[in-house]
Amino acid sequence: MLQDILLTPEEIALKAEVREFVKREVSSDLIRKMDRDEVTYPREFVKALGNHNLLGLRFDKKYGGRGLPWSAEIAALEEVGVLGTALGCAFGMPSIVGQALHSFGTEEQKEKFLKPLLKGELISAEALTEPRGGSDFFGATTRAELKDGWFTVKGQKRFVVAADGADFFIVYCNTDPAGKPRERISLLLIEKERPGVEVKYLYKLLGTRGGGTGRLIFKDVKVPVENLIGGLNEGALIFDTMMVPERLTSAGGSLGMARAALEVAVRYSDRRKAFGQKIRNFEGVSFKVADAITQLDAARALTQAAGKSVDAGLPTARRIVSEAKKFATDTAWNVCNLAMQIVGGIGYTNVFPIEKMIRDTHLIQIWTGTNEIMNLLIQHEYYRELLKDPNPGRMIEADAEEAAQNDEKVYEDDEMWTKGW
Ligand SMILES: Cc1cc2nc3c(=O)[nH]c(=O)nc-3n(C[C@H](O)[C@H](O)[C@H](O)COP(=O)(O)OP(=O)(O)OC[C@H]3O[C@@H](n4cnc5c(N)ncnc54)[C@H](O)[C@@H]3O)c2cc1C
């Protein structure tokens, strides 16, 4: 299997451990109840993960993590991903919120919030998106004014997973309206019980149900300065750091979702008969399987490469993480659709879980930065890398037969021709 070449023996063992957890500890009943919105947040699931020391695998052991590299966490994410987006996100959230606390939090914040988070005793949520928009992150209008050691927070955030379910939120606020976009945002930790915090609305979602996605309102919420994570007006740096787990958890989880749908379809095609033979004997079916597994393996390899780039601190990590988020989530969407086509009409019903996977996977192309925003980042980084490469390779242009015809290499309007000699 591809994992044998990508993972160490220890990482393969972790993958097997998580696979076992997912098989034994998570009931189909929970998944169904969440999809029916009968469970609004899977708190017991997170607690069970904490009990097995499976939350925030990358973080220091002294805070309750396992001190593992990204490659291990991605392997675990794939296994949890087979459960769908809502449970995958519940697994990934301590990795995202935990990153802010682990990298920028004070020792006191780590004791009070990070440790219980990794035990599954506290549930967290992150609030970036506002009704006015999610892509334009630095345009945040939720205002936090600092006076006499207290922030007063006013504003609202939208589409917050675990708005219902979380004990605390990390909330990006505008703390200096006159400042430049990257110099006016701060990150505050706001406990749900603070007066003025309100979960206003729970969304009726196409998929990813049961994750408590809602709108949060902050009405003059008093937050002590000790709840500031990192420096005042230094939220941009935390945002940049948090975007790595945001996007890699999306990428890693989507590998599992694609795999789950494909497994259902492949097993079905080995049993279902048409025209007197198994449908897998038709190229129209089996070549879809070939396309799907090839895309999935490519997504796995790219996601693992992204994780290794982050761990190695490579300057290209930002681009490759964005590529992995885009490619793995698009792959999950494609593979789930191929799976439905393979299964045919019954795949469109809730007799099989592929329709749920399709409902789930459309979200992962949108959240944690839409795939259009990923494209924005990817091209930007690549132009910069190539055009500013201090040690460029061979100048391929010179290999053309007529490479010396410089007059023919026109890049813009030449005044000589338009205005005459
Ligand atoms: C179920 C669900 C759960 C979510 N969970 C969370 C959460 O826990 N916490 C959180 O903070 N947010 C969360 N989100 C929000 C999510 O991250 C945003 O929806 C997403 O970032 C897009 O923001 P938007 O919906 O405001 O769309 P907009 O930013 O309004 O974008 C609309 C469209 O315009 C495109 N677009 C915008 N700007 C550009 C550009 N410069 N170039 C090209 N295209 C562009 C976008 O790609 C998109 O197609 C969640 C969303 C959903 C639906």
How would you state the average pLDDT, rounded?
A: 96
Percent in strands: 5-15%
The overall number of domains is: 3
The structure class reads: alpha+beta
Strand order of the largest sheet: 1-4-5-8
The CATH topology of the largest domain: Butyryl-CoA Dehydrogenase, subunit A, domain 3
Residue runs with pLDDT of under 50 for 5 or more positions: none
State the share of residues found in helices, binned by percent.
Answer: 40-55%
The oligomeric state of the chains shown is single chain
Largest sheet: 4 strands, mixed
Q: What is the element string, with H for helices and E for strands? A: HHHHHHHEEEEEEEEHEEHHHHH
Give an overview in words.
The protein has three domains: 122 residues, Orthogonal Bundle (Butyryl-Coa Dehydrogenase, subunit A, domain 1); 106 residues, Beta Barrel (Butyryl-CoA Dehydrogenase, subunit A, domain 2), CATH 2.40.110.10; 150 residues, Butyryl-CoA Dehydrogenase, subunit A, domain 3. The termini are far apart. Helices cover 49% and strands 14% of the residues. The longest helix is centred in the middle third of the chain and has 35 residues. It is α+β, with helices and mostly antiparallel strands and 421 residues long. The strands form three sheets. A four-stranded mixed beta sheet has the order 1-4-5-8, covered by helices on one side. It binds flavin-adenine dinucleotide. Flavin-adenine dinucleotide binds next to β1, β3 and α12.
Q: What are the key terms here?
A:
single chain, 421 residues, alpha+beta, Butyryl-Coa Dehydrogenase, subunit A, domain 1, Butyryl-CoA Dehydrogenase, subunit A, domain 3, 3 domains, 4-stranded mixed beta sheet, 4-stranded antiparallel beta sheet, 10 strands, binds flavin-adenine dinucleotide
